[in-house]
Structure formats: structure tokens, C-alpha cells
Design goal:
With 767 residues, this protein is an alpha/beta fold. The chain has four domains: 147 residues, Chitobiase/beta-hexosaminidase domain 2-like (Chitobiase, domain 2); 372 residues, Alpha-Beta Barrel (TIM Barrel); 69 residues, Immunoglobulin-like (Sandwich); 158 residues, Galactose-binding domain-like (Jelly Rolls), CATH 2.60.120. It is built from 18 helices and 33 strands. The chain has an eight-stranded parallel β-barrel with strand order 7-8-13-14-15-16-17-18, surrounded by six helices. Strands 27, 28, 29, 30, 31, 32 and 33 form a seven-stranded antiparallel sheet that branches. It has a six-stranded mixed sheet with strand order 1-6-4-5-3-2. Helix 8 crosses helix 11. The protein is globular, with a radius of gyration of 30 Å. It starts with a helix and ends with a strand. The structure holds acetamide and zinc ion.
Length: 767
């Protein structure tokens, strides 16, 4: 008997403890008060709502299916039961279209909202308190009272299914993840140069031809050569209209509206592969495989009325499928050269009294908008649609920073903020060393979390035109479902809080703690996610002429351990408490430790070399590129070695030799000079042809000490660092001059063949 009582007490305590811990909702609700006790979902629980209400029936089905997956229990509807979950649509001023009130007591759960959207979000909050998968434990919802509503109406996520095709199952998983975190707009990028992904009944070749390309998955995206006639096009895929209808209904049940993007007038090489008469040259071509080519057609001809008839027919089918008020028509990155050389396009410019090709694009978008508006829909385009004149009712998606959004809002146009920083989830979230190959810069979890979508330039009235924010996942470098998950998790959760929660509620430390149950959820569901926030950031700096490093991590309360002997750090290694002085050559490794566990699969690493030229002044004959200044003029001798990332401590020169002279200040005995150089084929960076070393005592009469000739082919695509070295008998000198001879243009077969090559150097080591 005693034993049973003890067990009972332990059960109650652990139940209420786990309930307390479990109430970590993302995005953070407007108000959440946790109370004593739990509501246990079991066979004595039923669901109640106004019978015959279609929306509530739809929401209840979602809840019933979710509970069945987590417990095996099918909740009965509208039967007498000891405990009840009630869904009520009821006019409530404060919470708006998508808000909800959730009340959990031991005998009842009541969700009230103005609309089905709010009911769904009440259910999502409830689901976040439960385990991610079926376990043997009872499902217990902590007693609580929640009042919640969103800050923005546009809480978007984008997915590019053109650069790589993703299955309907992955698309549904993406929608599930969005819905769990109350994101409500799925921007489905269905058309691009490398694939047309939506079945159009009137134009079957769009998918028969345009959805398939020559398989070059063995090559890095940017270095893929143009496919040749006769090579089999086996890579790709598309969604049938039946699959699309199914996905739209799936999303609608979860309050996710799908906005299709039918890109135009550029980025449509896939459509032109199917129907060459749509472009200016009318020459046949194949869908692109990646790479960057100048001899293909990516644009529709803006002077050909048949193009508009084609697009109206396509859009008619699209609008029949998608109930979304918004239709996205792209409009970005149009290379206007084909239009300049096309007699039809030039005739259109003349006939319409247009000034130039920018106005021709504006004509194109306005004509399409007119059609879309005639069907009672609204047009969205990327911010390039501002150039040459904005279509009268267009909504602008600001991606090249926020300036397009600011400009449009000042013109009283709706805007959606999706600036590259921090909304592009194809950018790195950590590293970049140790991370899967990505495009662009660094959008860490914290950087995303700290985003404020209302630009300072807008006044209060203009700020109302900002409908919300969207995270974009372009997939040039993302080929698998696992990689899609990895790029959006957990950054989408940070964005969800940006768009849903009130700015005053935002708190990084609190968010990070609330993120932990989501990490468990991802683990339970086998979802891949980035632990990039655990990466230790290593920041070297020179203080009073001495080199020191600061170590930091985005994780609140984390401890950093490091080594300087090249070994992997453990919790037995040196604990970081203050900046570390570097006065000898060493390799620093550092890890983040949370609750006694090393969180990184690989430590962060930085190599330092202290040598006879450390800290010495360097002068260049040809100037260093302003894009690759590293940490200043003496980067070559700062003791910090460049890493495999092009933007980490390298000095870059475009099409010019590096001719660098180091002043050792006084006569110094030296016997070896080395120069580290980088090759990154994809970024047009190649090892030099050779490195030559000369020395002088007076700075004028240089004596050649030797030359190290490159032996590594320029066509090696994996990034690499090579040390070029020249050794000689010990010699007393003051000046050392090194010349790194740049390649005579990018190599044959490279996308930039014959164009100026880059040469990158760091560090110049004198021993
Ligand atoms: C874009 O990223 N080209 C909209
Ligand atoms: Zn044309």
C-alpha cells in the first residue's frame, strides 16, 4: 500500500512538472498563464462543435487525426463524455481573424475564435504541449489560459521546386512544419529556367519537355556545362493538377494559403525549351542544368502577342486550381539583352511610346496584371517590377534588401519583406566551414530572430503597407528532403516569432529555451535541423600590437572549451573565460558545451602562424579588391590564416598579379618564404601559375631567391588551400617581395572561360 501511494505521488509530481516544462510555445503567445493540473486525453474524451459547420468539422478532423497519431485514440464527436474538447466560433473583438482563446481545465478544453484559422491555431498551440510521436504515456495537456493573435497577416515561407524537384510528400511535410509554427502563406516557386513544375493541360510540352533536364547532379551547380542535344533528359519531375488540388486542400485545412509563382518574363528557359516560339530568337534549346550561360534564351518575347495569349491561358488554368487571392508572377533578374536585339520587342517599344527595355518590362507586367485583376485576383512580383514603372495594384516582394519595399510602401503599395539578410534560408547559418555548401552570406538563427520587418524609413501610416515577412529557400545547392529540413529548421521558428509575436515579447534567451522542445520534436520525428547556433565564433583582433581571440556562441549560458594543440576539445579542456592571447603558431579548436555535453559534431577551428613578418607592413603594386579586404591592409601578415571560405581573411585580386612587398623593419636572417593561396573553382578563384620570391636590403635591388610553380589543375572543383614555398640559404634582408602570377583567364569549360580569374592570398609567412 505504502509503495503504491509513493508511486502515485511521484506520478502526480512528474505529471505537473512535465506539464510546466512542456508549455514552451513558438511563436510566443500574446498571453499564456499556466495553471495547476492537466487535461488527460483518453477514451472518456469527446469533441464538440456546432454540428453541420463545415469549417469546424474540417478543423475537428485535423485535431482527431493528430490525436489518433499520437495516442491511437479516435476521439468521438458529439457524444456525452466525462471530458470534452469544444471548438467554438464566436465573435471576439480583440483577437482578429486568426487569433484564438484557449482554455484548458481538468475537465474541458475550449478553443474560441472568430474563424476556422483561429481554431486551427488554438489546436496547434495545444499540440505543441504534447509529445511529437506516439508513446506509451497518456496525453496530458497542462491547464492554462491563452489569448493569442498575430502581428502580421503575411507569415510566409517559399520553396523553390525548380532548381531541384521535391515530392508532394516533402511539400506536405513543409506545410505541416509551417502550420505548426503558425506560418500561413506558402509561396510555391513552380517555374524557373531549370524546370517547369506544374501541369498545364493546354500546353503539355511545358512538363513533357520543360520538367526534365540532363542529369548533372555529380557536378557543383555553378560549374555545370550546358547540356548537349541528344543527351537524355532524365532528371526532374512535376506536379499533376490532381496532386496540386490535393496539396491545396491539405494546406487549406491547416490555414496555409498557397501562392503559386508563375515566373515571367525572365527565368523561363524551361518554357522556351518546350515552346521555342515564345522567345525572341525562336531557336530550340534544352532546359538548363545549372551553370550560367550566355547563349540561351531565358526570356519571353515582349513584342509577340502570342506570348500574352499563352500566358493568359496558363494563368487561367493556374487560377482555376489555386483559390489564392494572390498570384506571383516573378519579374526578377531579367537580362534585357535579347529584347534589345529583337525587332518585335523594339517595334513594341516604339508602338507603345516606351523609353527603353525597363519600360518594356513594366509594359509586360502591367498587361499581365490587367488580366489577373480582371479575374478578381492580385498580382505579386519581386522588387524589380518597380523599375520602369510599377503596375497599378501590384504587391511588391522586397528581396534586394528593403529598399524596394520602402519605395513601394511610400507609393501606397502593399509589400512583403523578404530581404536576403536575414530572410534567405539558402544562405549559411553557421561556419561556413563544416556546413553543407550554400549560397550567399550568413543568416544565423539569432540574426533571423532579431529581424524587425518595419524599416525605419516608413512612418506609421506607410508601415501598414508591410503585410509581413517571408523566408525563402532557393535550392540550387539543396537536392534532398533532408537538406530542405536542415536549411529551414530551426530558422523558420525564429521567423515565425518575428511575424507572429509582438516586438515587446521578443527575448532571445527566452526564445532559445522555448526552442528546446522543438529540437526534441525534430529528433522524435526524424527531422534534420541545424545546430549551427552552437558553432563557436572565433574572432581574432589586434590589441596594442598583440593578437588575441574572442570566442562566442549564440547560445545563452553555454560554456566554451578550447584547445591550442590541435586536439578536439572536451569538457576536460581549457574553459574559455577571457580573450586568449596568441603569441606562437598554433591551431585553436573550440566547442560549445551545454549541460556537460559537447554540442558540435566538429569543433570550430582557426590556424594562427607567428613568424618573422607577423605584424609587418605590406605594400601592393596592384590594389586589393575592395570586396576582399579581409581585416585590413596587413591581412597578409596578421598571423591569421585564411580558411576555405573565400570571405575569411583572404586578400583577393581580379585578373591582376599579386605583387606584395613586406618591410621587416630591420635586417633579418631568413631562409624560407611561403604564400598560402586559395582555389575555389565555383567562385572563379584559382591558384596562381607560380609564386616567385625576391629579397632586398635597400628596397630597390631585389635578388630572385626562387620560384614555386603550381602543379594543381585549375579544373579541380573542390575548394583547396596550397602553400607555395621557396627555401634558400640563410640570408640577411630587410625587404621580401612575392609575386603570385594570376591565371590567364578562367580555364576552358568553366562558366567564365577566358574571363579574368581571381587570385587569393593569405598568409605571407617568412621564416
Ligand atoms: C530572387 O532571389 N531572384 C528573387
Ligand atoms: Zn522579342
Amino acid at each position: 500500500m505504502r509503495k503504491i501511494i509513493v508511486l502515485f505521488v511521484v506520478l502526480i509530481v512528474s505529471a505537473s512538472l512535465s506539464a510546466q516544462q512542456a508549455v514552451s510555445i513558438i511563436p510566443k503567445p500574446v498571453s499564456l498563464v499556466v495553471k495547476q493540473g492537466v487535461f488527460t486525453i483518453d477514451a472518456n474524451t469527446s469533441i464538440k462543435f456546432v454540428a453541420g459547420d463545415h469549417d469546424l468539422h474540417n478543423a475537428a478532423s485535423f485535431l482527431v487525426a493528430s490525436i489518433k497519431e499520437l495516442s491511437g485514440i479516435t476521439l468521438p464527436q458529439h457524444v456525452q463524455a466525462a471530458k470534452v474538447i469544444q471548438l467554438i466560433i464566436q465573435k471576439t473583438e480583440q483577437i482578429g481573424n486568426e487569433g484564438y482563446l484557449l482554455q484548458v481545465n481538468p475537465a474541458s478544453i475550449i478553443i474560441r475564435a472568430n474563424t476556422k484559422a483561429g481554431i486551427i491555431y488554438g489546436i496547434q498551440t495545444l499540440l505543441q504541449t504534447l509529445p511529437g510521436i506516439r508513446t506509451n504515456a497518456l496525453l496530458q495537456v497542462p491547464c492554462m489560459r491563452v489569448t493569442d493573435y498575430p502581428r502580421f497577416q503575411w507569415r510566409g515561407m517559399h520553396l523553390d521546386v525548380c532548381r531541384h524537384f521535391f515530392s508532394p510528400e516533402l511539400v506536405k511535410e513543409y506545410i505541416d512544419l509551417m502550420a505548426r509554427y503558425k506560418m500561413n502563406r506558402f509561396h510555391w516557386h513552380l517555374v524557373d529556367d531549370q524546370g517547369w513544375r506544374i501541369e498545364i493541360k493546354k500546353y503539355p510540352r511545358l512538363t513533357q519537355t520543360g520538367a526534365w533536364r540532363v542529369d548533372q547532379t555529380d557536378k557543383v551547380w555553378g560549374s555545370r556545362p550546358q547540356a548537349k542535344e541528344g543527351e537524355p533528359a532524365t532528371y526532374g519531375g512535376y506536379y499533376t493538377q490532381e496532386q496540386i488540388k490535393d496539396i491545396i486542400a491539405y494546406a487549406a485545412q491547416r490555414n496555409v494559403t498557397i501562392i503559386p509563382e508563375i515566373e515571367m518574363p525572365g527565368h523561363v528557359a524551361s518554357a522556351i525549351a518546350a515552346y521555342p516560339q515564345l522567345c525572341c530568337s525562336r531557336k530550340p534549346q534544352l532546359p538548363l542544368t545549372g551553370g550560367d550561360y550566355t547563349n540561351i534564351s531565358s526570356n519571353y518575347c515582349a513584342g509577340n502577342d502570342s506570348v500574352f495569349i499563352f500566358l493568359q491561358n496558363v494563368l487561367s488554368e493556374v487560377m482555376q486550381l489555386f483559390p489564392s487571392k494572390y498570384i506571383h508572377v516573378g519579374g526578377d533578374e531579367v537580362d534585357k539583352t535579347p529584347w534589345k536585339n529583337c525587332s518585335r520587342c523594339q517595334a513594341r517599344i516604339k508602338a507603345e511610346g516606351l523609353k527603353n527595355e525597363e519600360e518594356l518590362q513594366s509594359y509586360f507586367m502591367k498587361r499581365i496584371e490587367k488580366f489577373i485583376v480582371s479575374k478578381h485576383r492580385k498580382m505579386i512580383g519581386w522588387d524589380e517590377i518597380l523599375e520602369g514603372g510599377l503596375a497599378p495594384e501590384a504587391t511588391v516582394m522586397s528581396w534586394r534588401g528593403e529598399s524596394g519595399g520602402v519605395e513601394a510602401a511610400k507609393m501606397n503599395h502593399d509589400v512583403i519583406m523578404t530581404p536576403g539578410v536575414p530572410c534567405y534560408f539558402d544562405h549559411y547559418q553557421a561556419g561556413p566551414e563544416g556546413e553543407p555548401l550554400a549560397i550567399g552570406g550568413m543568416n544565423t538563427l539569432k540574426r533571423v530572430y532579431e529581424y524587425d520587418p518595419i524599416p525605419k524609413e516608413l512612418n506609421e501610416q506607410q508601415a501598414h503597407y508591410v503585410l509581413g515577412v517571408q523566408g525563402n529557400l532557393w535550392t540550387e545547392y539543396v537536392t534532398t528532403a533532408e537538406h530542405v529540413e536542415y536549411m529551414v529548421l530551426p530558422r523558420m521558428l525564429a521567423l515565425a516569432e518575428v511575424v507572429w509575436s509582438q516586438p515587446s515579447a521578443k527575448d532571445w534567451n527566452d526564445f532559445y529555451h522555448r526552442l528546446q522542445p522543438s529540437f526534441r520534436y525534430f529528433d522524435q520525428r526524424g527531422l534534420h535541423y541545424s545546430k549551427g547556433s552552437f558553432t563557436v565564433s572565433i574572432k581574432p583582433q589586434t590589441v596594442n600590437g598583440k593578437l588575441q581571440v574572442t570566442l562566442s556562441s549564440e547560445i545563452p549560458g553555454a560554456t566554451i572549451y578550447y584547445t591550442t594543440d590541435g586536439t578536439e576539445p572536451t569538457t576536460q579542456s581549457q574553459k574559455y573565460t577571457a580573450p586568449v592571447a596568441i603569441d606562437t603558431s598554433l591551431t585553436l579548436n573550440a566547442v560549445t558545451v551545454v549541460n556537460g555535453t559537447v554540442m558540435n559534431s566538429k569543433p570550430s577551428q582557426q590556424q594562427f602562424v607567428i613568424h618573422k613578418a607577423t605584424g609587418a607592413a605590406v605594400s601592393y603594386v596592384n590594389p586589393v579588391s575592395r570586396y576582399y579586404m579581409a581585416d585590413g591592409p596587413n591581412s597578409l601578415t596578421d598571423g591569421i590564416r585564411g580558411t576555405l571560405a573565400a570571405n575569411k581573411y583572404w586578400h583577393g585580386f581580379n585578373g591582376k598579379d599579386i605583387i606584395a612587398t613586406v618591410d621587416l623593419v630591420k635586417e633579418t636572417n631568413i631562409h624560407k618564404v611561403s604564400l598560402g593561396c586559395l582555389q575555389r573553382y565555383r567562385d572563379w578563384i584559382f591558384l596562381p601559375q607560380y609564386v616567385q620570391v625576391e629579397v632586398a636590403s635597400d628596397g630597390f635591388n631585389f635578388k630572385t631567391m626562387g620560384k614555386d610553380v603550381n602543379t594543381i589543375a585549375a579544373t579541380v572543383t573542390n575548394p583547396l588551400i596550397k602553400n607555395f614555398s621557396v627555401s634558400f640559404e640563410p640570408t640577411s634582408v630587410r625587404y621580401v617581395r612575392v609575386t603570385a602570377k594570376v591565371l590567364d583567364g578562367c580555364p576552358a569549360g568553366h562558366p567564365g572561360e577566358g574571363k579574368p580569374a581571381w587570385v587569393f592570398a593569405d598568409e605571407l609567412i617568412v621564416e
